[in-house]
């Protein structure tokens, strides 16, 4: 009975070790995937997204500059026509408002670019860099933790195997003594 119990203990310890090895593989692969994804997100932001956002903001500035020049030219033209009484004060007023709005739109576009370069991009870079660091630390911690758990399961298997051998030796000795 003791030998059978010890045999069962070895089987159970072997299964526990195999389960631990599979869980270790899954946990490390998941942590590695999360780390690799964080590295790729940082690279994507640094090499593609951030430059794209800056170019888009610069394009908005160019559009706003063109619109401002157009509106200023239109306003000046209408002022000249007003001197000759060819347009109404209302038309000149609308053109003046459009020119002022175009000027404001340009200032807003310039401030948006400045905000992006000085604050949003540095913060996003730092956040993504921290994510890479965090996932690397988690991966290293997960490797250490799963190695320790695997060592415990391996140790339990060795103890169970040793106990089984002792019980078998003892049973063999008893059997020889009975003969």
Topology pattern, helix = H, strand = E: HH
Fraction of residues in β-strands = under 5%
Helix content: over 70%
Distance between the termini: 20 Å
Main beta-sheet strand count, sense and barrel state: none
Low-pLDDT ranges: none
Rounded Rg: 38 Å
The overall strand count is 0
Tally of separate helices: 2
Backbone shape: rod-shaped
Mean pLDDT rating:
93
Question: Oligomeric form of this entry?
Answer: single chain
- Which structural class best describes the helix and strand composition? mainly alpha
Describe the overall structure.
The protein is an all-alpha fold and 179 residues long. Helices cover 96% and strands 0% of the residues. The chain has 2 helices and no strands. The chain has helices at 2-83, 89-178. Helix 1 (2-83) packs antiparallel against helix 2 (89-178). It starts with a helix and ends with a helix.
List the helices and strands and how they pair.
Blueprint: H1 2-83, H2 89-178
């Amino acid at each position: 009975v003791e030998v059978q119990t010890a045999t069962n203990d070895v089987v159970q310890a072997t299964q526990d070790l195999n389960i631990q090895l599979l869980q270790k593989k899954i946990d490390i692969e998941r942590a590695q995937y999360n780390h690799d994804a964080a590295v790729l997100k940082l690279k994507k932001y640094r090499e593609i997204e951030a430059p794209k956002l800056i170019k888009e903001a610069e394009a908005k500035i160019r559009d706003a500059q063109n619109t401002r020049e157009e509106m200023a030219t239109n306003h000046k033209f209408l002022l000249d026509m007003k001197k000759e009484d060819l347009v109404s004060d209302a038309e000149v007023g609308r053109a003046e408002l459009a020119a002022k709005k175009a000027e404001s739109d340009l200032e807003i576009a310039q401030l948006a670019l400045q905000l992006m370069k000085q604050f949003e991009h540095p913060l996003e870079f730092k956040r993504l860099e921290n994510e890479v660091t965090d996932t690397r630390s988690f991966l290293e911690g997960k490797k250490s933790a799963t190695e320790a758990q695997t060592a415990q399961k391996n140790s339990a298997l060795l103890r169970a195997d040793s106990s089984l051998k002792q019980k078998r030796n003892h049973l063999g000795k008893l059997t020889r003594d009975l003969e």
